[in-house]
Design goal:
The chain is mostly helical. It has eight helices and no strands. α3 packs across α8 and α5 runs antiparallel to α8. The longest helix is centred in the C-terminal third of the chain and has 26 residues.
Length: 214
């Protein structure tokens, strides 16, 4: 990837698969169909958890409101996180290696149209659960933002050597959480999250194609 934008491709949807056997040779190879299936299944699981939690705890989720301000903020936040991630990638070797391994494993088998799902599935399911349901459930305050961000970071733990990215995911969770807190609009983090995933995957695919054509 040009700047790697790191695990932000949020193919974090495969976290539970990778965690089950990170030392197995088979864990180092996934087909396109497997990746898409895992993303879809994980999205359904997260959405189901959000719905059950919302129903039984009588939680009023953060609304999704389409307006120019929310779209603008989502784009700005996505751009800022991508730039910050590229700086982190350029200055922290262990983080960059981990990101490249992860992207090679998850994004490389995908084709360009799949990047739409790479953006939308995590963007919708994770934001609904971690920002839309968790933050109101925990009190819609600083404590709620911190707790949801930590849990969001843990979701991105793909192996025991991946703590740099977990910490960065927590920071991103805090940013997305505050965007909900100040706007009361779930569209902002959904759009930001989806754009980050999509463009991370896109740049990685373009880089791989350029390398392969040399």
């Amino acid at each position: 990837m040009m700047t790697n934008f790191n695990h932000q491709c949020q193919t974090d949807q495969l976290f539970f698969v990778i965690m089950t056997d990170t030392n197995s040779p088979n864990s180092q190879s996934f087909t396109r169909i497997q990746i898409l299936a895992f993303m879809g299944v994980t999205a359904v699981i997260l959405l189901t958890i959000a719905q059950i939690w919302r129903t039984f705890a009588s939680i009023r989720i953060v609304p999704v409101e389409f307006n120019i301000t929310a779209i603008f903020l989502g784009i700005i936040i996505a751009f800022g996180i991508i730039v910050a991630t590229s700086i982190l990638d350029a200055t922290l070797e262990s983080y960059r290696r981990s990101a490249e391994d992860y992207l090679e494993l998850i994004v490389t088998p995908l084709v360009f149209p799949d990047l739409i799902w790479l953006g939308l599935l995590p963007g919708l399911s994770e934001e609904l659960l971690f920002r839309g349901v968790m933050i109101p459930a925990f009190g819609y305050d600083l404590f709620a933002i911190i707790v949801s961000s930590i849990l969001f970071g843990v979701l991105h733990l793909s192996d025991k050597q991946n703590w740099y990215y977990v910490l960065w995911a927590i920071v991103i969770g805090l940013i997305l959480g505050y965007s909900v807190y100040f706007t009361n609009n779930l569209l902002v983090p959904i759009l930001a999250h989806s754009l980050i995933n999509f463009f991370s995957g896109l740049i990685w695919k373009i880089k791989k194609r350029m390398i392969n054509t040399k």
